């Protein structure tokens, strides 16, 4: 395994770590804890498919470039936050993809409160500092907004009673609705709930630039801010962009066959999975659920054949390869704050009239039930026993003792 | 309360966080969680005792300098790591005073293993990278060495079986014995134990310079290293040094009366406690135990009188002030690795022959008993209920599941 990041990150719970509901290490799994894996903390710089070799750059001594041969390659590099080329985003906004990002966001919000509490800060300073703008209407930004609001109202209000009225949270979405993959009913439920909690939700609000102290929308409206969290969408990362010979989709993702092997040029021994790939028969959403199923599909292929002697490996592998990848949608879910969630299970969005009322009732959850579903689903998906102990413990701690408010 | 650091740090357990036995946040207590305290995250730049004002610099907008008046001042700024003016220490060594330091040390050791595991690193590279030098023979460096060894042998050996034989840990002490405050018998016990565990203990080894890849001793011997941890002693910090009018001791600490007020110039409303102060009647060791008792002494003074009306405050306060501070030695202890510790309780070092064997037996502990004493003592000293739950939980986690090996 080659990666500049030495841990696996359980991204669905990343938003919870930005506020200290969970600690960073309980949603990561160190790669080094896995058995029988040779791991290199290096960055892949290029892929020489003709030679069956990849080119690596050492993460620590960056002048150390070396090559590594392979028989089979699984290309699974993910993607990066998309700034849509909007000016000032990379310089001024905070992203939410990695543990480091979550740490930065957490420290930033704490910093804003400390700065606003200074006797030298004016009323206007306070209003600006305590204005948080979240850009994007997908599950990541919704969950971040929900967690932020919970944190500030449950813990912030106790610590900074004189500041809490200065807080404004604004959620910006460029299209005409949030949570598009959940359907209009759950989106409406979420918007209503956010508005009751005094979170401003502005749809049809495209950001055109992010200056040091304000965000400007297309209609000229300027929103002063203390922090901007940018979670609008994804774009291919540098390595994927640089693989010039490989066929890409319109969105820049690598085209793969239904067996998840490279489509063109065709190499049977290169698999691409996750956000960076797209099957030519139809694009799947760039979610963890898809990547997870793709990972299992490939693992199954290799596991079925590794029991055989090496001489028969290729033949068995090719046989195994006849089963193509088939995505099974298990639904989507999001936490929306205050012990409430939204869950859209398969069939929820079916237009089929034969889907009866009873079935529909269980394919669309909102409120406490959806939140319980959300917690139990993510809890069962955690990868290690240690984290299965830590995560509920921190949930309990946040509930009873509040969230930690120190930065270092 | 004014401090650039927004949390209280339980320093005695800091060494445990360098290896992930404990997580950073379970030994910190956010200042903001305390009730009825106005906190400023600022750095004190100067004290204008004549005007009863202090000068502060904002920790975030560093050009923001402001003054704050006081009736009473408690000066408790601690001290900083002492490099004894040895060349290269500040540039190349890692210190162990703050949470950030512990994070850096933890990440550094992980980095060394990742670098050494690269196929491009030679046998010599590995030997150098995996050589850790700890400078200082006090409890901090002893505990760090012990934790490091536990970590590497329990977790490192599983993850890097091919590298573990390249690891060398060297402890350097300039004087002729380690753990001087514990007495010769416990020092000898510790040295024997360390040597059994293949930790090199070099006494009478004064470091004269720290270059980028090696440490040089006075006798010319050069030790190549991957990491140097510097924990030799303390020196006054910049603010204390700059308070030119205040009388200082030979070691640069501020001289205080037996009531812990400023000795010269005499200001009854300025108290100095902790590492930065020294009573004129005799120096106390710069330990948490002394600072803790001094803090309680001052708190008692204020608490006894705050129930009275403000007009009578000064009078009561002066009365209260007649009781001078008296340090009660409750002993010293250190963890030395592998479920063993050393504990020196009062009377252990008494030369009095009347102290009978029975009494002596309980004033000097070593091994498992001392370790249990160490754990229970520190456990009871933790300040919050949340941390009293977290700390044993992490001890349990480290014991069963090992320590986390990811860096971010």
If you had to describe this structure to a student in words, what would you say it looks like?
The structure is a homodimer of 408-residue chains. By secondary structure, chain A is α/β, with parallel strands linked by helices. Chain A has two domains: 7-81 and 235-320, FAD/NAD(P)-binding domain, CATH 3.50.50; 89-232 and 331-401, 3-Layer(bba) Sandwich (FAD/NAD(P)-binding domain). Chain A has helices at residues 14-17, 89-92, 99-116, 123-129, 139-159, 184-196, 238-242, 288-306, 310-320, 357-361, 368-381, 385-401, and strands at 7-9, 28-30, 42-48, 53-58, 65-69, 73-75, 79-81, 131-135, 168-172, 199-202, 207-210, 214-217, 222-224, 227-230, 234-236, 254-256, 261-262, 267-272, 277-279, 332-337, 340-344, 364-367. A four-stranded parallel sheet of chain A has the order 10-9-8-14. Chain A has a three-stranded antiparallel sheet with strand order 3-4-5, with no helix packed on it. In chain A, helix 6 links the parallel strand 9 (168-172) and strand 10 (199-202). The first copy, chain A, is globular. The interface between A and B is large, with 51 and 50 residues.
